[in-house]
Amino acid sequence: MAVLKVKFTKNNRDRLAQVLWILNWVSVVSGVVLFSLGLFLKVEINKRWELMAERDIHSVPNMLIATGLVACGINFLGGKICYDCADTTKFLRWKVLMLPYIMCTFFFTFCVLAGALMCYGMRGELEEALDQGLHNAMRYYKDTDTPGRCFLKRTVDLLQIQFHCCGNSNYRDWFQIQWISNRFLDMSNREVVGRLRSNVEGKYLMDGVPFSCCNFNSPRPCIQHQITNNSAHFNYEHQTEDLNLWSSGCRQALLEHYSSIMQSIGFTVLIIWLFELWVLTGVRYLQTSLENVLRQGDPDSESDGWLLENSFVETARSNFNIIKSLGKCNQIDTANNGDPNMDVSSRAHYGPENVLPKQLPLAS
Amino acid sequence: MALLKLRFSLPRRVRLAQGLWLLTWVTVLAGAFTFSLGVYLKTELLRRAEVMDNTEIHVVPNILILVGLVIIGSNIVAGRICQDSLHSARFPPWKPFLLPWYGLTWMVCVWLFSAVVLSYALQGQLEESLKVGLRNGIRFYRDTDVPGRCFQKETIDKLQMELRCCGNTNYKDWFEVQWISNRYLDFTSKEVKDRVRSNIDGRYLVDGVPFSCCNPASPRPCLQYSLTNNAAHYNYEHQSEELNLYNRGCRQALVDYYMGLMNAIGPVVLSVILLQMSVLLSLRYLQTSLDGVDPENPEADSEGYILAKGIKESLMDVKTTILKVLQFGQVTAAADEEVGVGPSGEKAATSN
């Protein structure tokens, strides 16, 4: 009971080989696409390395890059094989290699699928990295005189302007950190000293935000300082004022940006996976039909092609036995008291002896 | 004394026709590229249409768009002509169209050249248009409640942030305009009343700028208000503070941007002109060499030239042809006497 048996004439086999040759070259192109998608994702993540804390987010683009390169190689080889398969004599060259090739490609498609699923699963790690990274970036916003951190102010400002966001979760995150450096604070001023003394860590905290949080859609000029103090500004009520600053947090904005990139990449990789599987099925049919042709002896005759010679269960069992016997090849056979030098004649059982030949019924 | 005469054997004629066919298709692509460049320039100009006062500069992309389409059409026709040129039966029907085709192609080259010249000549116009447009934008910045002007604030803010510029000429333009609307000013406050009374027009002028002028590269948090007052901020000297706001004026930034675009388009247009001229010359050689082929001996050599006579003589020929065409409608003095003879008399007059 072969799995999905299909009959192939000589013409069918030749056409299958040609089509598979073309499809393998298309797969090489899709491998290049996979590689470039991985590269694109890596570049996008590296662009904002300052805002991401150390997490294992580089595994996804690296996986895609590696898978893309391997896909190019495997499909290039597959194209060569299929090109030669149109001629039965040339097929003999590849006959031994074909089954291992198909097995490798089958396991490789799992890698492609894993790459696609990792794209969708990366979101959690990314959120953590962004949360920690943005928290640190905002903390070091004022350190424009510290080497290594002097560009963080510019990075955060440009991020908030470009992504239309403010703070980590929302604008109130700026109220909890000191974002104005001490060198721009007049320590002789009573108000400044009062603010510094009002909290345990001696930080100059205020209910104000940097200018990059300002929303240009607001009908009034931006109110950056004393945001929660309604009496500080004319005709201002901070609970109802929703256009003054950007309302979304930068973590959410960046997460959405990366999620949309990764969803489209994941979708493309899934399509490539289905295509690879399809090409693999074609190569398997080609291999089995050509082997059957060789078994029958006549290169121009019809032959059967299948996915598996026996049903799934039997194939699984026989493979399992092979693996078991591989494991046993070093073990000593205990039947001869452990002596491997004794000659044990193997008795193959061909059925009972002295059986009369049966009379075959004549075809009517 | 034909101009630039060349000898063409049959294989050479065939190769000329094939090469010209390829060249026409390359020129079709160049025409498509010119068209898309024109569309791109027009969309870039339209994007900032709100800060431009007039649309005179739009003549440059309009020329590029039209000429691009004409180049595509005329070169497809030229390709067809090349394909038919090697068939002695199919080529003659095209002959009457060749002279108008040359005229059209010559006009196309002139238009393209004028587009390049205009893109530099109209720079002054562009700058004037931007000056007026930006001045209005800054004046109406506060009118977010007036229909028709309510998006000026957003436009100017986005412009200043994207182009990294402030004001018309520089940031001091904001000091001369009331950019804070009256509905956000507390007229019971002494400070507001003093400021409003301090100038003739009763405007609330401040030495401050909107937040969109702030430069993110500054090491200190942005100072927007009391810019000229050193005492208002700790450790601040407004003459030496360069990174706080953007230094460029938006007019200069926009002019630089558009001039950069036109400078990039210039060489492309000049190479399209070269391509089109080479198609014109090659087709002229093909036409004249095919005309010179002896009908009894089609495989013999023939001569190709650009003009049958020298330049001066050709111009004189053209002049006499034009005069003849103009005189077609005039009745000569000889025909006046024979006006009673009728059509035969007119025929005699025109045959002169």
UniProtKB/TrEMBL annotation, chain A:
Any one annotated GO CC term: plasma membrane
An example Gene Ontology biological process: visual perception
InterPro entries (alphabetical): Peripherin/rom-1, Peripherin_LEL, Tetraspanin/Peripherin, Tetraspanin_EC2_sf
Superkingdom of origin: Eukaryota
Membrane topology, record value: Multi-pass membrane protein
Chief site of localization: membrane
Stretches that traverse the bilayer: 20-40, 60-78, 98-120, 265-286
Pfam family, one: Tetraspanin
Protein keywords: Membrane, Transmembrane, Transmembrane helix
Chain intervals for the UniProt region annotation (Disordered): 337-364
Subcellular compartments: Membrane
Family label: Belongs to the PRPH2/ROM1 family.
Matches recorded under PANTHER family: PERIPHERIN 2 LIKE-RELATED (PTHR19282:SF184), TETRASPANIN (PTHR19282)
Protein name (record): Peripherin 2-like a
Organism: Esox lucius (Northern pike)
From TrEMBL, chain B:
Bilayer topology annotation: Multi-pass membrane protein
Pfam family for this entry, one: Tetraspanin
Family: Belongs to the PRPH2/ROM1 family.
GO biological process, one term: visual perception
Name of the featured protein: Retinal outer segment membrane protein 1b
Main location: membrane
Cell location: Membrane
Residues spanning the membrane: 20-39, 59-78, 99-122, 264-283
Keywords assigned: Membrane, Transmembrane, Transmembrane helix
GO cellular component terms listed in the entry, alphabetical order: plasma membrane
Record-linked PANTHER family: PERIPHERIN-2, TETRASPANIN
